[in-house]
Specification:
This protein has 473 residues and is of the alpha+beta class. The radius of gyration is 28 Å and the shape is elongated. The strands form four sheets. The protein has a four-stranded antiparallel sheet with strand order 3-9-10-4, with helices on both faces. A two-stranded antiparallel sheet has the order 1-2. Strands 5-6 form a two-stranded antiparallel sheet. It contains 14 helices and ten strands.
Length: 473
């Protein structure tokens, strides 16, 4: 018989115990530092496995545990981080906390369920999860988590680190089993739904954790939460619904593959930069102008007392002015900045961009027009030039150099997509501007990301958008 060279035994790891808890108890039972335990186990519980099956089998053999028992500590689907463009993103430094159940902690037990940011109640005891902040600052992320969990266990568990059996050792109850099943189905359904997308009209910032609550609410629509576990999952501040418009595929472009996504990205980029300045603009431009005029009317009655603070990153924060002389600090009215933002993104960008930036954009449009030509979306007058002077004259007039070769249905799709995205941005801007005129601190403005999408569905192109419905509270 061979004996392990450290204090651990088969069955010491409890079913569905978190990797952090297993690692911490290994440290405690063997009087090892965090760094030394990392060296012995070759395991970092705050990082996902690169080869889960292989690494779990290796760790199980090292600890003398069964692979099936140890595998219950790691369920990647629970994080909802493989849902395509709906994937939840890990939080930043502010999220480096330990969530725990006080009833489980009395047993010296911390579950991988407790680590899930979208769960608010313990699936074993049905009590709200609590959040523990670290008692002080620690130098590494892993130490941050481990010391916080250690702090929790020393407060709640009288026999720590000698612990009792876990609540799932005799079998997984119906609630946690239903949570695992829903997370697995949600990951699959959301990824498949995301795979239909060939264009997200704005994906800027979508990978930031601040969008997690939006995406979680959308996942709830894609894969509804079973009634049995609704009380255990995080509620969202809005209800979401989906609206669709269907269009003929036209020329046969835009399939959900790399080339199709690249093609429609080039097309929409070229479309939104040229159409507001064309001689015959599409209907969405008139709609945009009406929204801009409405903002200008509201600006007249603006009584906001905020000023802008530009961070070193270029981000603009708005803060309330203190005292009657605060207006002297403000460089621009927030309405002016909002109007410029709408014009720069969707309207007559040549009028609001600095000359150097506008010149650079003209150069980019020349290249973009040639890419649009290569995909067969436009014909370029410069290609028919009979001499170099005529060629460059056409080339340097990007708003007059092209003729669309698209089907009417494809142009209708582009117009409708632009209108929907402008509407989403205008609604978000209105909410933000209203917050500037309220008594509370201004909201942080973020462009609506992933609200409007173009999808491929058989012989049709589908314009889809997420609509914030009514207050869910």
């Amino acid at each position: 018989m061979t004996y392990l060279e450290f204090n651990w035994w088969s069955g010491c790891a409890r079913a569905y115990e978190s990797g952090f808890s297993i690692f911490l108890r290994f440290c405690e039972l063997n009087h090892l530092s965090i760094r030394r335990a990392q060296e012995v186990l070759a395991f970092n519980p705050h990082r996902p496995f690169s080869s889960p099956d292989t690494e779990i089998d290796r760790l199980a053999a090292l600890l003398g545990e069964s692979s099936s028992r140890l595998r219950t500590a790691f369920y990647p689907d629970l994080s909802l981080s493989s849902c395509g463009s709906y994937s939840l993103n890990p939080g930043g430094r502010d999220e480096r906390v330990i969530r725990f159940c006080p009833e489980c902690a009395r047993l010296g037990y911390h579950s991988m369920f407790h680590e899930v940011a979208w769960l608010v109640m313990c699936p074993f005891h049905g009590v709200p999860l609590q959040v523990a902040q670290p008692p002080r600052y620690y130098g590494t992320i892993l130490e941050h988590y481990i010391r916080t969990l250690q702090y929790v266990m020393k407060i709640h568990c009288a026999g720590w680190p000698l612990v009792q059996r876990g609540p799932a050792d005799d079998g997984l109850g119906s609630v946690p089993a239903s949570i695992l099943d829903w997370a697995s189905r949600s990951t699959k359904s959301s990824a498949e739904f995301s795979d239909k997308d060939i264009l997200l009209l704005n994906s800027r910032g979508l990978s930031d954790s601040s969008f997690n609550l939006h995406k979680l609410g959308q996942i709830y629509v894609i894969e509804p939460v079973p009634e049995e576990i609704k009380m255990y999952v995080k509620s969202v501040d809005v209800n979401w619904r989906i609206e669709y418009r269907r269009f003929d595929r036209g020329g046969g472009y835009f399939y959900p593959d790399v080339e199709g996504r690249r093609a429609i990205s080039v097309l929409f980029d070229f479309y939104m930069k040229t159409q507001p300045l064309s001689h015959n603009p599409p209907p969405y431009v008139e709609y945009l102008n009406s929204l801009i005029e409405a903002l200008r009317t509201k600006q007249i009655a603006c009584r906001c007392d905020c000023f802008d603070v530009v961070e070193t990153t270029g981000e603009v924060l708005w803060r309330k002015v203190i005292g009657v002389h605060g207006q002297s600090y403000r460089r621009r009215c927030p309405y002016e900045m909002t109007l410029d933002e709408l014009e720069a993104r969707w309207g007559r960008w040549t009028e609001v961009w600095a000359k150097r930036l506008a010149d650079q954009e003209f150069g980019r449009l020349i290249v973009l027009s040639q890419s649009a030509r290569d995909f067969g979306f436009v014909r370029l007058a410069s290609d028919d030039a009979t001499c170099s002077d005529e060629y460059f004259q056409h080339l340097h007039s990007p708003f007059d150099n092209y003729t669309w070769t698209l089907e009417p249905s494809e142009l209708d799709l582009l117009n409708a997509a632009a209108k929907w995205q402008i509407e989403a941005e205008f609604d978000s801007m209105t909410v933000w501007l209203d917050s500037l005129n309220s008594d509370r601190e201004p909201l942080e403005y973020a462009h609506p990301a992933g609200f409007v999408r173009i999808q491929s569905d058989g012989d049709e192109l589908v314009l889809m958008r997420w609509v914030r419905d009514v207050d869910a509270s």
